[in-house]
Amino acid sequence: MTDPASDDDAVAPRRGGYRKGAERRAQILDEMIRMVAEQGVDASSLRSVADALGITHAALRHYFPSRDDLLLAVYREHEVREQGAPERMKSAIGDMRESAARNRAVPGLVQLYTTLSADAVQEGHPTTRDFMRERFTRLRADLAGLIRADQAAGRIRDDLDAEDLASLSIAASDGLQVQWLLDPEAVDGERVLRLLERIVPAGDADRTDGASA
Amino acid sequence: MTDPASDDDAVAPRRGGYRKGAERRAQILDEMIRMVAEQGVDASSLRSVADALGITHAALRHYFPSRDDLLLAVYREHEVREQGAPERMKSAIGDMRESAARNRAVPGLVQLYTTLSADAVQEGHPTTRDFMRERFTRLRADLAGLIRADQAAGRIRDDLDAEDLASLSIAASDGLQVQWLLDPEAVDGERVLRLLERIVPAGDADRTDGASA
Questions:
Q1: In chain A, which residue ranges form alpha helices assigned H by DSSP?
Q2: Which of A69, A188, B89, B111 is deepest in the core (most CB within 10 A)?
């Protein structure tokens, strides 16, 4: 969805330095994704990242003027890589469930997402707010499209508003990540999302097999 | 659930000063709830709160040693007041929906909740993490109890795991608050939670009236 090249343009130092700048930026993001995955978001102050990378604070700020810019770039890079995952957006709620399963492997990225959500709803983080609002808009539209296709094919009951069911699925997935991260023994996000999948189908076909699941 | 008096004990300056200390603490929380409701969480650094209250930073720290302590106290006070609301915990998902409707009136408190969630899943906020984990545990148990009662009465289909449905409802409610706060025109949290209520009942009684709802 996002073209990484256009971002690089915005931060490229000058004509001619473009390629080197883009490589450097990619290096920083690689390192950041590793750091966030291993140590969580708190390790990602601009200063500690610069230290870890062995570059100056000023050099880092050249590519990422603020901590918000850096966190967003890390998340976007993660999203771009995630979209390479083979099952991306083939079924409506199943997709959310698979995405939750993958995120489970990298709690640091769930922390990053939660931080971006919290920042987005506060004052003082306009870039994060715009990014998250656009992300939700796009995700709701994509998911609603899949839901409508499932409704047309008789796989999801057609008296449910597709946009509302999309909002519900995204919200459930987001909220479950927090509950799971705080209490992995008590909350199994995938199983709970499977419950949501089980209650939306048209007809009663799967209604009786619940006990055997 | 929380007895405010026991908290006051912990921060009361000394024997004899207890009553005055408790009053002072209550005054600070009153003011904070007002500030958070009006201006959001970002206005709640210890220093700006002390300035707004016309007390010294040291005096404020006497009652609330850290920003985490202050934010948690504000949220708990809000919860205590909220529990006075007449409809509290009478029906399973309906309750979440009514709570969402009330929160809608005070975006600052939704911001506060989102901040606590984000802090809780990061390193470095052990008190917030413990509070939020316990809150989810308690809320899941309360809601699962209501769901089991609804299942016994034939109001919710009985092939759904009550704990999982409780997790799902809480997660949906939490996630919807963020989507709604970012895009109130696009997302109506109450309507979406009503969709969840509509798909869990036993039998098909309400399945045909969807269009007229």
A1: 4-11, 18-39, 46-53, 57-63, 67-82, 92-103, 107-121, 126-152, 162-182, 189-199
A2: B111
Task: Give the gap in angstroms from C-alpha A89 to the nearest C-alpha of chain B.
Answer: 20
Q: Are B95 and B146 in contact (CB under 8 A)?
A: yes
Burial class (CB in 10 A: 0-12, 13-18, 19+), A105: exposed
Instruction: Please indicate if any CB of chain B lies within 8 Å of the CB of A106.
Output: no
Q: Which residues in chain A come in under a pLDDT of 70?
A: 1-17, 42-44, 83-93, 103-105, 202-213
Residue B187 in any domain: the answer is yes
Residues 32-61 of A with CB under 8 A from B: 39-42
Q: What is the mean pLDDT of residues B149-159?
A: 89
Q: Taking each helix axis from N to C terminus, what angle separates A67-82 and A126-152, rounded to the nearest 10 degrees?
A: 20
Q: Using the beta-carbon criterion (under 8 Å), do A179 and B191 form an inter-chain contact?
A: no
Residues B43 and B115 in one domain: no
Whether B195 sits inside 8 A of A115 (CB atoms) is: no
A-interface mutation test, from B106, B110, B158, B159, most A Cβ less than 10 A away? B159
Please check the confidence at residue B48 and state whether its pLDDT lies above 50: yes
For residue range B62-76, list pLDDT tens digits in order: 999 988 998 999 888
What total number of domains does chain A contain?
A: 2
Q: Which 8-state DSSP code applies to residue B41?
A: G
Residue B189 lies in a domain: yes
pLDDT at B113 over 50: yes
What CA–CA distances, in Å, run from A2 to A5, A18, A20, B6, B109? 9, 19, 21, 52, 33
If you measure CA to CA, which chain A residue comes closest to B40?
A: A122
Interface confidence (ipTM) of the complex:
0.80
CA neighbor of A88 nearest in space, from A1, A172, A5: A1
Please give the Cα distance from A200 to B200 (Å, whole number). 9
Same domain? For A137 and A43 the reply is no
Residue B157 has pLDDT above 70, yes or no: yes
- Structural domain of residue B196, as residue ranges? 88-203
